[in-house]
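Reviewer 2 asked us to include a model.

Predict the structure of this chain.
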Amino acid sequence: MFPIINGLEDNYIIALKFVLAIFLSGLIGFEREKIHRPAGLRTHIIVGIGSLIFGLLSIRVFPNDPARLLSGVVTGIGFLGAGTIFREKELISGLTTASSLWATAAVGLALSLNEYFIAIFGSLMVYGILQLKHFHWFRELLGYDEKLYYESLKIKPKKTKKKRKKTKSKKTKR
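Predicted model (C-alpha cells):
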C-alpha cells in the first residue's frame, strides 16, 4: 500500500524534520537539564522525535483525518507531564517541566505538519520564557523569595566577598 522508499527528496525533507526536532526539542530540554529537573535534555528530545513520528504517521495513514492520531499525542503527553508534577504540603513543583514537555510535543507536531516557522519561533519563545526566571529583575517583579529560588536550583546563592582583616600569624619554631 505504501512504498518503502518515497522520492529521495521526501526522505531528505523528513531527515531535516528529525534534525530540527532534535535541535529544537534539545534547546528546551537543555534549559531543564541545566537546572537539574527530572525531565531534561534526553526526555525532551525523545518527546519531540516521538511526536514528529506520530505526526508523520498520522498524515500517511489517515490522510483525510490526521487529527485522529495527533489528538492522541496531545492526550498522551498530558499524562506524561502529569507524572512530573509533585505536591508537598503547599509546594507544587514540576508544572513548568510538564508544560515544557507539552510544548516540545507541539514542536514535533508542527514540524510534521510542515509548519517550520511555528516550530522554530515557538521553541525560541518557550526557551526565552524559561530563561526569565534566571533574571533578578524578573524575580523581583514577581516577588520571588530569593532563598526559595536558590533552593529550587539546588545551589547556594552567591555571597559577597568580605575583606578579611589581616592578622599577624605567630611562627612556631620546631
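The chain has a mean pLDDT of 81. Residues 8-131 form one domain. We have added this to the supplementary material.
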